[in-house]
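Please review the protein record below. Let me know how this chain folds according to its tokens.
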Amino acid sequence: MDFLRWELIARSKLFKAIVKRGLAPTLGSQKIIYRRPLKIWSKFDVVLESVGMDDKWVYHIHYFEQEDEVKAVGITRALIWKRDIPTALTDIMKEVGATEKKVPPSWVLSLFKEDKEIIQIANQKNYS
């Protein structure tokens, strides 16, 4: 899924705007739902849909299709940052001419609602 987002950036005006600022697009979270297995070495298509953004995150849905059937769905959120500091996405999008603000569906936002808490809980566990 990361490769698709990088390709999308590389083929758009975003690449120039990101590189000139010394920024890095970074995956923040991803969720994958498997309906049917994608067998190793089997051919499948991935369709990427950009479903919205806010001031920090860009949200995408990846549809893994094989034999005219969706076998899996991946939902991701990514951000652009420099030295561990998220960058205001709005400024970059204005620079490349993307002025329309598309709000992600509520079900997508709800998938990532507890991410910070999950990481905090994991950091409190003692694995040794």
In short: Residues 21 and 93 are 13 Å apart (CA to CA). Residues 115-124 form the longest helix (10 residues). The two ends are 32 Å apart (CA to CA).
